[in-house]
Amino acid sequence: MVGLRGVGKTVLLDKMRLDAEEAGIQTLRLETAEDRSLPSILAPELRLALLRLSRVERAKVFAEKGLKALTGFARSLKVKYADIEVAFDLPGESGLADNGDLESDLTALLQEVAYAAQSAQTAAVLFLDEMQYLREAEFRALISALHRCAQRQLPMTLIGAGLPQLRGLAGQAKSYAERLFAFPLVGALIETDARDALVKPAQQEGVEFTEDAVQEILHQTHGYPYFLQEWGKHAWEIATGEVIRVEDVFQANLLAQAALDSSFFLVRFDRMTPTGKRYVRAMAELGEGPHRSGDIAFILTRSVQALAPIRSALIKTGMIWSPAHGDNAFTVPLFGDFMKRIMPGNDWRGI
User: Fold this and answer.
1) How far apart are CA 31 and CA 159, in angstroms?
2) How would you classify residue 14: left for phi > 0, otherwise alpha for psi between -120 and 50, otherwise beta?
3) Is 159 in contact with 167 (CB distance < 8 Å)?
4) Over the chain, what is the mean pLDDT?
5) Which helix (H) or strand (E) element contains residue 171?
């Protein structure tokens, strides 16, 4: 399981999925959402995977049993999770993933999918993005099901991505989650890698960056991959000839910043309530962070207790996260600078 910082994680996840597909692995591309249940997201993708496996002669019997398990799974949980929509290819089998309990039914279902993959001499991998939106009961059921597959040495696993609070959410769902999964944090690139990300693709096209141009882009982006792409793109479009100079980057700064403000940052800003925006603006006033809840409360002239519901809502929606007890940090880099631009002056103070 991968805990990413929110910039470029989807691109990385898709790259890993494509590599797996090229290796002949059965992949399921999934993305959680605040308004959808895990069963509703899983069911259609599991159906497609099982149908693909049913075309492999030696896996046909196991895949058909998996489709029966999927029928039982969807029907038994339809009342509880009204958003489940999946076609039934075979009738259910009594007692197979149809108890109505998410944890036991999901375990049974994923095992049947894993048996089908094993008989086809391949593996099944769930690629699950935005995992921070999983409800605790759903997260618990998913971890339990994967744990059972691991115990039985079945070829079923998960590669997930989410915001930094993912590790803590997994631990809350199941105490053994940190032993079952690895949680590498993918954030800013080190300077040499960030430099290569800019320079090498350009060199392949016969274009060079001057050293001061590279340094300016690294300074503006802090080495985050998605931001490197934005600055590199705009500098490329501005430059004339075969050399990208620092003057080109200075012009690109405004264009890249405007592009991020109007899409990447604004989408997150619009999801916050007015009180949430003021809380995050107070964080921006303190700098990059992390920041203590008490320091934020001091700026807003409120008590930590009074602000606790606002903080909890911001964490739940992925706007901020808590790297340590009482600490608060942005989930998206450079978001504090954006908040200062979109909420300038001091009118935002006071909740």
Assistant:
1) 12
2) alpha
3) no
4) 91
5) helix 166-173
Which residues share a beta bridge with 208?
A: 243
- Distance between CA 191 and CA 228 in Å, rounded? 12
Residue 77: name the closest of 93, 100, 97 by CA. Answer: 100
Beta-ladder partners of 30: 128
Which residues, listed in sequence order, are joined to residue 125 by a DSSP beta bridge?
27, 157
What single DSSP character describes residue 261?
A: I
Task: Please say whether the beta carbons of 317 and 34 come within 8 A.
Answer: yes
Closest by alpha carbon to 219, among 248, 194, 200, 245?
A: 194
| Beta strand pairing call for 291-292 and 327-330 | antiparallel
Whether the predicted pLDDT of 3 surpasses 60: no
Q: How many CB atoms neighbour CB 337 within 10 A? A: 15
Beta carbons of 317 and 280 less than 8 angstroms apart: no
Please name the residue that has the structure tokens 């602000």. Answer: 307
Beta-ladder partners of 291:
328
Residue whose token pair is 């959402």: 33
Beta-carbon contacts of 212 under 8 Å, excluding residues fewer than 6 positions away, are: 245, 246
Q: How far is CA 23 from CA 42, 59, 125, in A?
A: 22, 18, 12
Residue 156 pairs in a beta bridge with: 124
Instruction: State how far the alpha carbon of 325 is from the alpha carbons of 18, 184, 306, 321, 322, in Å.
Output: 38, 21, 17, 10, 7
- Give the global pTM: 0.79
Determine contact, residues 183/167, Cβ cutoff 8 Å. Answer: yes
Instruction: Scan for tokens 């309530």, then name that residue.
Output: 273
**Poorest-pLDDT segment among 5-9, 245-249, 327-331:** 5-9
- Give me 60's structure tokens: 């046909």
Which amino acid appears at position 303 of this protein? S
> What are phi and psi for residue 7, nearest 5 degrees?
-120, 105
Long-range contacts of 56-60 (CB under 8 A, 24+ apart): 56/119, 56/120, 58/119, 58/120, 58/121, 59/116, 59/117, 59/119, 59/120
